[in-house]
């Protein structure tokens, strides 16, 4: 019996989301931005630190753009999704743990390790998603994918909460400072990621294929060319994808840069940590509610509503003064973040030809994973150009507005029902 017939393999696949979401929550959105600004970028302005962080995020995304087509082709041809997933997981785990050994002021090494860890996380997810078709029958994909998402949300949130308690009370662990607790959290996150990847490594299998005909590189280039050609034949699709690139990049930038932004305004680490927890716990029920709303007012209208809320967030964020305002903004982000992402997926599904759903969604997912190429560095540059980190919000406003304008040019009526 292959992996499609094993419940144990399917559950083990879903459990990997529990494993790698720890990196997304604890490192990517939580502690790394704080440490990068306060610990590794000592002696420079907040604007310069944010710019460096923005370029690091963009570098990871740029590496994925170059790696993904070739790696995806090799995985398809050799049945190597699991092997490549575990390889990139090992890269992410080792880089994450290594962050704990970077000394104060060494922002260059911290940035390099962060890029490598992010590469392991982002690339690993490509192969993780692809394994879904091998671990369960088609009729179970939706439920199994939802199980993975739920486990990831729960696992990442619980580990982050535990790390927060340690950072706020470092003496409980015999540590001298909160910084020491954060450095320890990188080790714990790497170990968590590695240990909870073991069920997938042991229980998930995929058919082994043999390479034939053209090389993997030629096949990857051909596949990308074919996808682009088909997308150009559907105006509504490529117009939407342009809009999606703009607003999802801005949304992703709020996730990656919010903590660094708040720190640059002088808010205490404790306030920023609490804000991120608020976003985590508000986000899950809010995403469900926005899905319900989108079914009634139309997915595109729901996305535009979410973008409108993000514009309020950005404008308010430019003038924020008190910690309670940061908490309120965190709650607003939680209200719309998951909803915009989920409605974008359902809206896109209504635009594409059903017989090419896999091909078109492959391109859509790549865009989602590349959505840190423009926003984070632009966020940092605006703060440097205008001499005040608050002007960084202008970059997000421009991207959200541009995305909304392009989105309104999608004319398909089917997408609004």
UniProtKB/TrEMBL annotation:
<dbReference type="GO" id="GO:0022857">
    <property type="term" value="F:transmembrane transporter activity"/>
</dbReference>
<dbReference type="InterPro" id="IPR050495">
    <property type="entry name" value="ATG22/LtaA_families"/>
</dbReference>
<feature type="transmembrane region" description="Helical">
    <location>
        <begin position="54"/>
        <end position="72"/>
    </location>
</feature>
<feature type="transmembrane region" description="Helical">
    <location>
        <begin position="326"/>
        <end position="348"/>
    </location>
</feature>
<dbReference type="InterPro" id="IPR020846">
    <property type="entry name" value="MFS_dom"/>
</dbReference>
<keyword id="KW-1133">Transmembrane helix</keyword>
<keyword id="KW-0472">Membrane</keyword>
<feature type="transmembrane region" description="Helical">
    <location>
        <begin position="143"/>
        <end position="169"/>
    </location>
</feature>
<feature type="transmembrane region" description="Helical">
    <location>
        <begin position="109"/>
        <end position="131"/>
    </location>
</feature>
<dbReference type="GO" id="GO:0012505">
    <property type="term" value="C:endomembrane system"/>
</dbReference>
<keyword id="KW-0813">Transport</keyword>
<feature type="transmembrane region" description="Helical">
    <location>
        <begin position="181"/>
        <end position="202"/>
    </location>
</feature>
<feature type="transmembrane region" description="Helical">
    <location>
        <begin position="302"/>
        <end position="320"/>
    </location>
</feature>
<feature type="transmembrane region" description="Helical">
    <location>
        <begin position="12"/>
        <end position="34"/>
    </location>
</feature>
<feature type="transmembrane region" description="Helical">
    <location>
        <begin position="84"/>
        <end position="103"/>
    </location>
</feature>
<feature type="transmembrane region" description="Helical">
    <location>
        <begin position="271"/>
        <end position="295"/>
    </location>
</feature>
<feature type="transmembrane region" description="Helical">
    <location>
        <begin position="237"/>
        <end position="259"/>
    </location>
</feature>
<feature type="domain" description="Major facilitator superfamily (MFS) profile">
    <location>
        <begin position="1"/>
        <end position="413"/>
    </location>
</feature>
<dbReference type="Pfam" id="PF11700">
    <property type="entry name" value="ATG22"/>
</dbReference>
<protein>
    <submittedName>
        <fullName>MFS transporter</fullName>
    </submittedName>
</protein>
<feature type="transmembrane region" description="Helical">
    <location>
        <begin position="360"/>
        <end position="385"/>
    </location>
</feature>
<feature type="transmembrane region" description="Helical">
    <location>
        <begin position="391"/>
        <end position="410"/>
    </location>
</feature>
<dbReference type="InterPro" id="IPR024671">
    <property type="entry name" value="Atg22-like"/>
</dbReference>
<keyword id="KW-0812">Transmembrane</keyword>
<dbReference type="InterPro" id="IPR036259">
    <property type="entry name" value="MFS_trans_sf"/>
</dbReference>
